[in-house]
Amino acid sequence: MTPQDASRRARDICGMAPIVPVLVVEDASKARPLAEALIAGGLPALEVTLRTPAALEVIAHMAQVKGGVVGAGTLVTPDDVRAAKEAGATFGVSPGATDDLIDACEALELPLLAGAATASEAMRLLARGYDMLKFFPAEASGGAPALKAIGGPLPQISFCPTGGVSPANAQSYLALPNVLCAGGSWVAPADLVAQNDWAAIESLAKAASALGQ
Predict the structure, then answer these.
(1) At what angle do helices 99-107 and 78-87 cross, to 10 degrees?
(2) What does pLDDT average to over the chain?
(3) What's the confidence (pLDDT) of residue 212?
(4) What is the band of 209 on the pLDDT scale with cuts at 50, 70, 90?
(5) What is the set of active-site residues?
(6) Residue 108: its pLDDT value, please?
(7) Neighbours of 163 (CB within 10 A)
(8) Choosing a second label site near 8 at 20 to 30 A (CA), which of 112, 125, 141, 157?
(9) pLDDT band at 1 (very low <50, low <70, confident <90, very high)
């Protein structure tokens, strides 16, 4: 997969909804109903972070849910890429980017949303052919004003800001011309997942899917 193809696919995924749920799931038995609730609420692109022992099993279950596109987040090493691909992930998300990680994603044809927090990092990825990136950690890196400033000299790069994005500030990001979507964890709070309150999660997803309109 070429960088251009990877970025094109990442753009398509980021264009599916204004918010990509960033999911930390401890219990694989919650995977299917959680995915169904989020998709029913209008958020079909799901990022399952590789931060729990259950993450790969969660990806495998969510990948079977109709209407969803499931990716693996927190990709750091080539081994992460291989495991995510084998589990059924159809895209990857990383907090940053290394040549080894990018090479692995290209070799395994896993579209990558690579992370960048500075103009230099974004320019380096652009030089490799990637023009759809993750801006992380968004709030800690200056928030929407910083991303707006980066967009001035680098208008050809689009971003999905993640990290500290909430219902209170999401609109400020989504209003920027260089933002296609944002990543957020608030649509699947741990307490609602633990209570199996899928109706409440679907309601949160519906509200999030209406952002940016």
Answers:
(1) 30
(2) 97
(3) 75
(4) very high
(5) 47, 134
(6) 97
(7) 21
(8) 141
(9) confident
The residue-averaged pLDDT of 103-114 equals: 97
178 token code pair? 């260089």
**Nearest-CA neighbor of 94 among 10, 187, 190?**
10
Write out the DSSP string of the chain.
Answer: --HHHHHHHHHHHHTS-SEEEEE--S-GGGHHHHHHHHHHTT--EEEEES-STTHHHHHHHHTTSTT-EEEEE---SHHHHHHHHHHT-SEEE-SS--HHHHHHHHHTT--EE-EE-SHHHHHHHHHTT--EEEETTTTTTTHHHHHHHHHTT-TT-EEEEBSS--TTTHHHHHTSTTBS-EEESTTS-HHHHHTT-HHHHHHHHHHHHTTT-
Assign a CATH topology to domain 3-205.
TIM Barrel (3.20.20)
